[in-house]
Every structure is written in C-alpha cells, then in structure tokens.
Amino acid sequence: MSETLRPLDTALSLAASGMPVLPLHRGKVPFGNCHTCTDNACGGRPNMKSPGPCQCTGVCHAWAAATTDPAVLTSPPWASAWRRAVAIAYHPGGAGLTVVDLDNADAIAWARTALPATRTVKTTRGEHWIYRGTMTSHNAVRPGVDIKSSMAYARYLGPGTGPLADLPDAVRALTVKQPPARPEPRSVSLPARFDGGQCPHRTPVFLERGIAMAEQRITAARSAVHTTVYATFLAVLSRHGRCDCLTETHVARLFTAAQTKGETARHCTDAWNNARTTLGL
C-alpha cells in the first residue's frame, strides 16, 4: 500500500481533505506517550479542537494527537514518527464520520441486512462501513461489531468504494443499552372467596388496614421470605378467612407482594393452601 511506503505523503494528502491523521507503529497501534505525558501526567488532550492542559508537541494521546495541520505533521517529533510508521490512522469523529468496524463474515452478513449501504473499505478480516455523521464510540455493540467515531481512531486502508450515506438511527441504536427484560407476569390461580355468614367487621377500613400491613410485612422481609409469607398468610386467614369480606383482589395483592420478594406463583398458592389447611378452612 502507498501509505506504508510513503506514509507522510499520504497523511498530508488526507489532512488536506480535512481528515485528522496520526501515525501507527509496529502492531498498528499509536505511538506511546513521551516522558512528560506518561500516565497522562500532563492532563491529556481532551479533544481535537481544545488541546487542554497538554502542551506536548509529540505524537501523544493516540486519537487526540490526530491533526490536519501540515506544520505539525512535518515537525521534528512527528517526522521521526512517520519514518518509523507502518500504517496511518485517522480520527473519524474529527472528520465528521462514523466507522462501523465489521470484524468477520458474520458481522458483514448482519450489516447487509440491518444497515443502509454506504462507503465500504476492505480490512484484513472484514470491512469498514463509513457514514457521514458523528456519535459516541463503542466497542462490541454486537458480536464482531465496533463503532469508531468520537474519541477513537480507525486505521486508514484506502478511500473505499461507494457514496457516503448519512449516519442512520440503526447505528446509533446499537449503543443504547436495553433494560433487562422483565419476566412476563404469570397468571395466578387464586382460591375462591370464603363463605361464612355475616362479616363481623363494621367498616371496610379495618380489612384494608390489615391487608396493607400484611403487604408491608412481606415486602420488608430481609431473610426467611418463604417463612414470612406463610406466617403472613396464616395471620390474614385467621382474622378474615371465615367471613365473606376477603376477596380475590385482596388475595392477589398478597400474592403480588410475595412475588416481588422472589416467591413463585406456585409457592404462593402452596403457602396459602397450607395456611387454610392449618386453620381448617
């Protein structure tokens, strides 16, 4: 490749087109920081347009060193790096671009069905799909797929083929973390209402307070949850199980409280039936 034979000439050409570039040494990685910038002691270069506290003129801080300034590219610290360079990298975000790095055949097959066509560059193992627009860089957004844009560098492997497409929402969506899927609510088969004559409670407030206290007792349990659920069911049934005021809605509230603590619907039903049996209901 021409950039491996005369990397500085290629770098200057790319810089003239508005692409911030930097040299890569053996291993195709950026040059290490100079002594002053070791371990980011200088404070680093936070972004391309604002150099930040670092006043180093060397090829430090990887992507943040990328530049379009020919005077910098040909300065003594950089000239030495270009003579030792084995490849060229660029900062996609600094050029207003996003690179979708497809690392294998499976990733390429996925992109061809999931993403709009755009400029494509062949890589050693896969392809770079380049879009017009910037976003936050992310690695491993799916198997074999990295996104390189702001605060990242990509290896320059040639101009590629095809026109540039605008960065699609489908690429941005790859970096949005989905909340963990919640288990589907399970239908709970609840015991029928109890029949037992006139309700001795004068107002429904008494029952409501009892159910609320039972829910609180279950949800406050920090250990022995199964035992607490059974004891609570037993207490509710001993107080309200022989009259006609306890409804399926009340029982559902107790079951829901128990399930939020990790009890299964089956455990709830078993505990309820065991409490009924104990009380002879």
Protein described:
Strands 4, 5, 6, 7, 8 and 10 form a six-stranded mixed sheet that branches. Helix content is 36%, strand content 14%. The chain has helices spanning 2-5, 7-16, 70-73, 76-84, 105-114, 169-172, 204-219, 225-240, 248-260, 265-279; strands at 21-25, 29-30, 87-90, 97-102, 119-122, 127-132, 138-142, 145-148, 154-155, 165-166.
Short description:
This protein is an alpha+beta fold and 281 residues long. It is built from ten helices and ten strands.
Residues in helix, %: 25-40%
Q: What percent of residues are in strands? A: 5-15%
The oligomeric state is single chain
Biggest sheet architecture: 6 strands, mixed
In the predicted model, the low-confidence regions spanning at least 5 consecutive residues are 1-5, 185-197
Instruction: Give the C-alpha Rg.
Output: 33 Å
Question: If helices are DSSP runs of H or I spanning 4 or more residues, what is the number of helices?
Answer: 10
Give the CA-CA distance, first to last residue: 86 Å
How many β-strand runs? Answer: 10
Order of helices and strands: HHEEHHEEHEEEEEEHHHHH
